[in-house]
Amino acid sequence: MDQLTATIGASAALRPHEAANLVEVDDLKVHFPIRSGIFKTVQGTVKAVDGVTFDVRRGETLGLVGESGCGKSTIGRAMIRLREPTSGTVRFDGVDLTTLKTGALRKMRRRMQIIFQDPYGSLDPRMTVGSIVSEPIETHHLASGAAKKERVAELLGLVGLDPKYVSRYPHEFSGGQRQRIGVARALAVEPEFIVCDEPISALDVSIQAQVLNLLTDLRSRLGLTYLFVAHDLSVVKHISDRVAVMYLGKVVEIGPPDQLYAAPGHPYSRALLSAVPVPDPVSERKRKRVILKGDVPSPVNPPPGCRFHTRCWLYERLGKPENCRTIDPPLEVLSGEHRAACHYAAEALKTDVGIAHLDLSSSIRRGTPDSALALLKAGKAVEVTEAEKAAAAPAADTGAAG
């Protein structure tokens, strides 16, 4: 395992183009034609991704969140050319992937991989674990014979699986174990960039934490770069260095999680955060929730101007300004690296919609006093002093978290 870690680390160190950004996406569009009739004539276009620009820095994890159908997975696949872009450019380490021919693209695929969302559908049920993990090694002629078997065993050990499982089939594993097999397959070619396409959404909560910890550990040990696609805002905040919020094929806000979660500048981001439960009853009652009206507009015919204005609570509060209906807002800097695509981001920042109102400055402790816990461990009777009772009593009224 240590030998494999050193090999991947050395491979990552020998990069021909040392730049801050590993992947640069510029005005990326992915449209799907709608065909009907006997002659399959084009009747319309689904604008799954419609003019997205961002970058992924070397060694970071960029989280990508948004509602189902907003284009998150399509972006991830287009970035490694599993999906052909309609227009725009994707530069990987300075190389424009959209212009590469088949042979050059195959060589470049060694440096970029994907972990699929479904741990059941992404593994061939007719192949053993050893065959699944060794297939990319054979494709890129990285090892053969005993060296290949040793490498597969090291990869399985790296993701926390017993190397003796090489002769088993996917149906013999749980969901979390299958996802670890998918991670091992992605690591087999020593990549630098991995698209994690909702890798934990199909797993139980207890298994989600294990896979997240695995990805975090592999990133620090191997120097990997992630695009992490997910729905869960708390998970994205935990694992990401920056977070991008998507709505209807557009990135509407991007920035460090501390800034974006504490002071979101886009009304849609605030609506998403308002739906995240807070583990404090008093704070939860104080929160101002946002229930978006109607459904997400069709990507076949998105609204003009700001695409969110048809459901925007701030648009209604400001008296329905005309520029929201006519001008598509660009991403503008709010502070530092925090950017939002909203004409009235300054007005959104003045509101407290979607913020949790948690007072973390208080030192009041809830629950059983430390002295009582110590007595319980020692097997003695618990006697709570009057001072401890007095210290714990105000906690029920303050609503502070500690």
Describe the secondary-structure layout:
Elements: H1 2-13, E1 21-36, E2 41-57, E3 61-65, H2 72-79, E4 87-92, E5 95-96, H3 102-108, E6 112-115, H4 129-139, H5 145-158, H6 175-187, E7 193-197, H7 205-222, E8 225-229, H8 233-239, E9 242-247, E10 250-255, H9 257-262, H10 267-274, H11 281-286, H12 313-317, H13 322-326, E11 332-335, E12 338-340, H14 345-350, H15 370-378, H16 386-392, H17 395-398
Parallel strand pairs: 3-8, 3-9, 6-7, 7-8
Antiparallel strand pairs: 1-2, 1-4, 4-5, 9-10, 10-12, 11-12
Helix pairs in contact: 4-5, 4-6, 5-6, 6-7
* Helix content range: 25-40%
The CATH homologous superfamily of the largest domain is called: P-loop containing nucleotide triphosphate hydrolases
Just give the CATH class of the largest domain.
Alpha Beta
* CATH architecture title of the largest domain: 3-Layer(aba) Sandwich
Order of helices and strands: HEEEHEEHEHHHEHEHEEHHHHHEEHHHH
Beta-strand fraction estimate: 15-25%
- Low-confidence stretches at least 5 residues in length (pLDDT < 50)? 7-17, 357-366, 391-402
Q: Strands of the biggest beta sheet: in what spatial order?
A: 6-7-8-3-9-10-12-11
Mean pLDDT: 83
Bulk shape: globular
Q: Which class best fits the helix and strand makeup?
A: alpha/beta
Largest sheet: 8 strands, mixed
Please give the count of helices: 17
